[in-house]
């Protein structure tokens, strides 16, 4: 690995030195004479390209003899072809004409350069910052409603699953010992903890969703895709944005951003966001609403333009959440195969208890343990962009932290069954990415990079799970009268101390070889090294202090001591090959074969027992190997419309999954390997702008995910108590995947004036639909979620400068639906639900300031 990167760079510069270079320089302006920054300038018939800077100026190196033709394109402007000669190659002035028909075009950076999304041979979708701003109460959960291939489930920030095409992370509760399969990037920095997806968006430019394995373009290897989020950068021109939103359930959100020049060559930006909302569940025991929002966050950026060829950006951010939130409500009760006295309804009858409601959509709970989800994150990053030769060298250094301080009522009742459940944790990561992206010759461009990340995750100081006075009845597994011994389980629990240290390093690269103007071949390789070290120590405490062997045996049936360590390292070579053929300027096709890899997983939730002993063979699970095939076609039927289709098949060997067990001591389940998994499907998306007044977008996905082989899976909830605790579920469907999902939306607008300023009045609607899906890793007859449809809307006035005001609503028809179903600890038969939000609505007022206002 250490020898590979220098060799690639030497080859690159050797090619550059062997051929005489020429430099084309110029400026791109609009018809009114102002510069057009971000314009893409490409050498026709080649992979050579350059991006205009903030002044509209560009510099493009070429090896071709004059005269040559360049293509100049920018979002919202008609594309131009310009002939370059020996006489004008150093002082070009290109004027672009506005073309409103092309305003729906999107520029992306997925391949580490700005290019139109229709030219990228990757299944990729984009949500622009304007959509984020105008949606009202936007969060990552909205991404899945706009891009149906995305699945997101969150029972609390720690237990967040972000999947693409049904793959990525384990479904259900999170085990910290495996890597996520969907990368989450913000301004080039990889966020290792899934809790990052629950924070508010601040000053977002756009969100790119890359579908399928990504390992040859991004720092961290990901087996299912990536969310690549970019924020708005500081500018030397003064500007500010402030907005405030009010809504039902006491919703208040305030955002502000200020940018401008500090001193010569140094610009800054400060952004802030704060959100407050009352809860949507009512606790009849405490007479309080829970599941509210309480978020605050800030972000500061400094941009230093060291020279025309070097930019340095320093970013610092910090966010915190303090909700009384993420409570779940009991959604139903299943009759298991345990004896009658071990059924939930008989247990609570013996304890003289009744649920506050049997209808989960009454939104009533009576939990006696406070819900707390204190969630903090932040960090620092430095990014250096230096133009060297025909490309850009980028170095991104980052340090991040995540602190988690929860309290949960895992029995979901007012009974004192599990009186404490607190997995307090601290996480730190540091990462370094260096990559070179640019033109190596007239026919060859690409990306070469190296990435290193280290992580330290530890308990803070311990994870606690503690039983209450009613635990004996839920844990009772024999008819012995000893279970009723006063105080036997009261205060009996476990304290776990663990630390996981991981280190990963990789070199990666992808080339774009223009065999002809229409035919490109894109090979890529990645070499990974992963190292993980785990120390796990769990001790029991409390309960009745006794030397009676019979009573001690009963206590050991609930909780036992566990101590184990694991130390592993492994390497992997993966890659991809894409062939792209652009039949004409309106049709772009591609076919991709890739292999990918997820490193060894280590169990951090405790191990199941056999004969009273922990099953140490499950402390470590095998790496996950992925083979992926995909074909796609991207079309532009007209200058104002797109229509794209992708078809794919993903086969996974030793699929890393998390499974639930009836043992209380296995907190959040444990990890296991399913021998073979297959996911295949098709995706269709498109957009059209009919005129200056009306636009429409839509997307649909078909996803078929199944266990091709999983012969030793745990039984589902209703089979708890069967002669065997495991079953063969080969051929069954994967959890969390709807076969069909789709979104459809549009906007109608008309120009006008409001408060004396120009802008557009608009009405926007979007809808999301998905068919039913399984909410249990082992398919269950009961833990299935019915399909549902949601409709959202916005109505108001939008201005580029000055005041914008609009009203918004989510779930306009107040649909009752489940986001997720979860089996309660101990498998007594009850299961809980994460409820989707009821109808919410509000008003947003925004003010954009610039000196020209």
Written description of the protein model:
- Residues 353-812 form the TonB-dependent receptor-like beta-barrel domain.
- The chain has 2 domains: 22-95, Sandwich (Immunoglobulin-like), CATH 2.60.40; 239-849, Maltoporin, Chain A (Beta Barrel).
- The radius of gyration is 28 Å and the shape is globular.
- The strands form 12 sheets. It has a 22-stranded antiparallel barrel.
- It has 853 residues and is mainly beta.
Distance from first to last alpha carbon: 55 Å
Beta fraction: over 45%
The total count of strands amounts to 52
The secondary-structure class comes to mainly beta
Helical amount: under 10%
**Shape label:** globular
Gross CATH architecture of the largest domain: Beta Barrel
Low-pLDDT sequence parts: 1-19
Q: What is the number of helical segments per DSSP (H or I, 4+ residues)?
A: 6
User: Main sheet?
Assistant: 22 strands, antiparallel, barrel
CATH topology label of the largest domain: Maltoporin, Chain A
Q: How many domains, as an integer?
A: 2
Q: What does the average pLDDT come to?
A: 88
| Name of the CATH first level of the largest domain | Mainly Beta
Assign the CATH superfamily of the largest domain: TonB-dependent receptor, beta-barrel domain
Rg of Cα set = 28 Å
How are the SSEs placed, and which strands pair?
Layout: H1 4-18, E1 22-30, E2 40-43, E3 49-51, E4 57-62, E5 68-73, E6 80-84, E7 92-96, E8 107-108, E9 115-116, E10 124-128, H2 129-135, H3 140-146, E11 150-154, E12 160-164, E13 182-186, E14 189-190, E15 204-211, E16 225-231, E17 239-247, E18 251-263, E19 266-277, E20 281-283, E21 288-290, E22 293-307, E23 310-321, E24 329-333, H4 344-350, E25 364-365, E26 372-388, E27 391-407, E28 418-439, E29 444-467, H5 471-475, E30 493-514, E31 519-541, H6 549-558, E32 562-584, E33 587-598, E34 601-602, E35 609-610, E36 613-614, E37 620-621, E38 624-638, E39 641-659, E40 670-689, E41 694-709, E42 713-714, E43 726-727, E44 740-754, E45 757-770, E46 773-774, E47 784-785, E48 788-798, E49 802-810, E50 818-823, E51 830-835, E52 840-849
Parallel strand pairs: 1-7, 13-16, 20-25
Antiparallel strand pairs: 1-4, 2-3, 2-5, 5-6, 8-9, 10-15, 11-12, 13-14, 15-16, 17-18, 17-52, 18-19, 19-22, 20-21, 22-23, 23-26, 24-51, 26-27, 27-28, 28-29, 29-30, 30-31, 31-32, 32-33, 33-38, 34-37, 35-36, 38-39, 39-40, 40-41, 41-44, 42-43, 44-45, 45-48, 46-47, 48-49, 49-52, 50-51
